[in-house]
């Protein structure tokens, strides 16, 4: 690959070590530069989609009294930055899909190695962002989560000419997903993508892959059991259930269509005081904040970007994107949108 062929496109979002110091949205100037220098295929369409979405949500910002909320402007600004990033991702996805996937895989390799090294050395990165060591009451690290974790399920395990290097990448990813991260949501999509990519090979050489599949099933079983018997499981379920009930109670006739405004907060459900308007049940909360009209506009916007970007199975990609809204507040995370762009690749 020639240096001149390396564009500042989607893969810049997978350079996880950068996220120890800056947020994903801080890289938007680089993405915008890429947007200008790359091939101008359907450039006007993307501009029209962006300005249409911006105009609609700006109107919604005024209609639903977002200005009356203490966090209305902060929420709206973060959302607009996300809209910009989605347009840029969609555009670069259309014109450099395969190239981006190669770079995502390469930088995922680097990210996994660094995450495992940091875990083994038990380094303290609590003063940095983008790396989360979840410790138990015993002080030991129970889980490791890096900001670009969703992208790891996109790895291309046939990228390198050296087969041993591909196997090594897969084993590292397997260890991170099942042993360190242990997110059941990520595990499901990791196994799903793996089966779609290599089902024919697995069927032909079943007994070759059987030991690894058995280990994977055991890990999944252990993780599922540990999740079920977890001491705080009941509290977690009750908390999410109460979040859902509290949100449904506030969706009244007066606020059904246009919502209660950007930045609307239910104080008893706040877990992140820097962004109190985003909770674990982010999708129902968005419905409450945006209202039916705003939510349908948002869903249409996401589907439109998938569709005009030539993403394979745009409807399934849209459903995958919104599925995380009941698990984690990732809906405005460019990394998650980027993951959905590549998941249903041909």
UniProtKB/TrEMBL annotation:
Keywords assigned by UniProt, alphabetized: Membrane, Transmembrane, Transmembrane helix
Domain of life of the organism encoding this protein: Bacteria
TM segment ranges: 12-37, 43-64, 76-97, 103-125, 167-195, 207-229, 241-266, 286-308, 320-345
Species name: Algoriphagus aestuariicola
Protein name: Wzy
């Amino acid at each position: 690959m020639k240096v001149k062929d390396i564009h500042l496109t989607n893969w810049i979002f997978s350079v996880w070590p950068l996220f120890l110091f800056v947020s994903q949205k801080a890289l938007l100037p680089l993405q915008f530069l890429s947007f200008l220098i790359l091939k101008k295929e359907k450039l006007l369409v993307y501009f029209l989609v962006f300005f249409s979405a911006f105009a609609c949500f700006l109107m919604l910002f005024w209609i639903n009294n977002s200005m009356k909320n203490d966090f209305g402007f902060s929420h709206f600004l973060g959302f607009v930055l996300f809209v910009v990033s989605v347009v840029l991702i969609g555009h670069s996805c259309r014109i450099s899909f395969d190239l981006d996937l190669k770079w995502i895989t390469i930088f995922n390799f680097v990210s996994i190695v660094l995450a495992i090294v940091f875990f083994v050395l038990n380094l303290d990165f609590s003063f940095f962002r983008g790396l989360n060591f979840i410790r138990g009451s015993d002080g030991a690290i129970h889980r490791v989560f890096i900001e670009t974790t969703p992208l790891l399920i996109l790895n291309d395990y046939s990228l390198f000419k050296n087969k041993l290097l591909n196997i090594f990448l897969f084993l590292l990813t397997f260890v991170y997903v099942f042993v360190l991260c242990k997110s059941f949501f990520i595990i499901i999509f990791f196994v799903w993508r793996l089966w779609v990519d290599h089902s024919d090979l697995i069927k032909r050489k079943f007994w070759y892959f059987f030991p690894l599949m058995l280990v994977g099933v055991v890990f999944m079983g252990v993780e599922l059991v540990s999740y079920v018997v977890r001491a705080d499981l009941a509290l977690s379920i009750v908390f999410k259930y109460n979040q859902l009930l509290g949100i449904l109670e506030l969706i009244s006739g007066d606020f059904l269509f246009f919502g209660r405004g950007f930045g609307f907060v239910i104080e008893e459900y706040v877990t992140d005081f820097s962004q109190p308007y985003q909770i674990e049940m982010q999708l129902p909360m968005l419905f409450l904040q945006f209202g039916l009209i705003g939510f349908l506009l948002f869903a249409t916007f996401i589907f439109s970007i998938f569709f005009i970007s030539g993403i394979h199975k745009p409807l399934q990609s849209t459903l995958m994107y919104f599925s995380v809204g009941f698990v984690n507040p990732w809906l405005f995370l460019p990394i998650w949108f980027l993951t959905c762009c590549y998941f249903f690749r041909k």
